[in-house]
């Protein structure tokens, strides 16, 4: 870019993953960033928002459904800005999409993997959308896909999904979540290798995450390796059911419920664990998979976990199991419990894979897309 580009980013919620990307965008020097956040910490993700940041940011007014004043102010102030609008899940985001489109402002659209209509959740099918809501969604997405310079999705799962929803292949692109990489994990700087003991799971304790599957696999694996433990970080409505399952399986001393932990606390748990287990029945992406691999942890992920499918080379940085397949997952655990050199090799491969995706790569990709949009503006 020949000069600093003003970039206005509409963000549904603020997380440490967004913060890492935003900080890297500013550090890159090609952008002057302004972030508009729709909502703050939620009850399920109470991230702390403290301290100054190197970019300009503000919240949308939570007391109104659509913050028209914010939209008008931005459109008046940001005459030369490029926009990135992430999802359409709040009325203000929808208003922003229409504002930039009607104002003929250049923008990128970024979304998580949309929930498929025919997803297998075993005995619990997600509630079907009414016909009118499906129609509105389809028309809104057609509008977005037509007017956005590119529609970005978090991984191959996401791109496949938005193409099925009508996004032309030439207007879709992969833009995953990004994390800031640290130094090489201590476990990989040590010559000694340790046998598998701690399986770590991080995520809400809800049915979609599939922790009952992880507990079932642990029960089987402990028949051969009784020292194995499962640590679960997170809170959610399924906790009483999971604790009941643990008690009935005689695993009370082997499964630790660690509750919600701030992002800053996770490295300590990554350092104590030997691998990450991610048994989701459906996961649009799964940033914790990226964090775990950057900490040198291989991943035992389900085929419905977007980041696991994208990043984990089966047999090299972990294993992928079919959704709900307790027997297959337990076999993967047993394989690594029985082969410490393989476990160590997978830990090294996980670390090397993580280093192929530094957050600076995301900034460069973003810069290329914006430069492309300036050279070839959309005629829609």
How would you summarize what this structure contains?
By secondary structure, the protein is of the alpha/beta class. The protein is 40% helix and 17% strand.
Give an overview of the whole structure:
This protein is an alpha/beta fold and 380 residues long. It folds into 2 domains: 5-180 and 358-375, Glycogen Phosphorylase B (Rossmann fold, 3-Layer(aba) Sandwich), CATH 3.40.50.2000; 186-354, Glycogen Phosphorylase B (Rossmann fold). The protein is 40% helix and 17% strand. The protein has 14 helices and 13 strands. It has helices at 16-28, 68-77, 91-102, 131-147, 156-164, 186-189, 211-221, 239-248, 266-272, 287-294, 306-311, 326-337, 340-354, 359-375; strands spanning 5-13, 31-39, 56-59, 82-86, 107-111, 150-153, 172-174, 198-202, 229-233, 255-259, 275-278, 299-302, 318-321. The strands form 2 sheets. Strands 3-2-1-4-5-6-7 form a 7-stranded parallel β-sheet, sandwiched between helices. A 6-stranded parallel β-sheet has the order 10-9-8-11-12-13, sandwiched between helices. Helix 10 (287-294) links the parallel strand 11 and strand 12. Helix 1 (16-28) packs across helix 14 (359-375). It is globular and about 65 Å long. The chain starts with a strand and ends in a 5-residue tail after the last helix.
Q: Please compute the radius of gyration using only Cα atoms.
A: 22 Å
What would you give as the CATH superfamily of the largest domain? Glycogen Phosphorylase B
> What is the distance, rounded to the nearest whole angstrom, between the alpha carbons of the first and last residues?
24 Å
Tell me the name of the CATH class of the largest domain.
Alpha Beta
């Amino acid at each position: 870019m020949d000069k600093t580009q003003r970039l206005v980013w509409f963000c549904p919620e603020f997380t440490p993953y967004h913060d890492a990307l935003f900080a890297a965008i500013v550090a890159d020097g090609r952008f002057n960033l302004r972030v508009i956040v729709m909502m703050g910490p939620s009850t399920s993700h109470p991230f702390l928002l403290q301290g100054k940041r190197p970019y300009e940011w503000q919240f949308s007014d939570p007391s109104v459904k659509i913050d028209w004043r914010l939209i008008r102010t931005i459109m008046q102030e940001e005459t030369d800005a490029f926009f990135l609008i992430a999802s359409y899940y709040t009325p203000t985001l929808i208003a922003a999409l229409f504002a930039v489109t009607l104002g003929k402002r250049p923008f990128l659209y970024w979304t998580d993997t949309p929930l498929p209509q025919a997803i297998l959740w075993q005995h619990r099918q997600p509630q079907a959308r009414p016909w009118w809501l499906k129609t509105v969604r389809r028309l809104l997405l057609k509008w977005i896909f037509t007017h956005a310079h590119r529609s970005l999705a978090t991984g191959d799962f996401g791109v496949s999904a938005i193409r099925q929803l009508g996004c032309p292949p030439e207007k879709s692109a992969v833009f995953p979540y990004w994390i800031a990489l640290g130094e090489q994990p201590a476990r990989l700087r040590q010559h000694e290798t340790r046998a598998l003991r701690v399986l770590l799971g991080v995520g809400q304790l809800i049915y979609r995450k599939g922790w009952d599957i992880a507990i079932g696999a642990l029960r089987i694996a402990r028949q051969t390796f009784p020292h194995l433990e499962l640590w679960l970080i997170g809170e959610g409505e399924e906790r009483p059911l999971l604790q009941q399952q643990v008690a009935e399986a005689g695993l009370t001393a082997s499964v630790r419920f660690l509750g919600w932990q701030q992002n800053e606390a996770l490295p300590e748990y990554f350092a104590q664990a030997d691998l990450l287990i991610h048994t989701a029945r459906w996961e649009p992406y799964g940033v914790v998979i990226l964090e775990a691999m950057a900490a040198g942890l291989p991943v035992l992920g389900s085929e419905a976990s977007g980041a696991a499918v994208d990043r984990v080379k089966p047999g090299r940085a972990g294993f992928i199991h079919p959704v709900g397949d307790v027997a297959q997952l337990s076999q993967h655990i047993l394989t690594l419990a029985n082969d410490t050199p393989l476990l160590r090799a997978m830990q090294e491969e996980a670390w090397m894979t993580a280093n192929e995706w530094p957050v600076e790569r995301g900034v460069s990709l973003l810069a290329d897309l914006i430069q492309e949009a300036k050279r070839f503006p959309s005629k829609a």
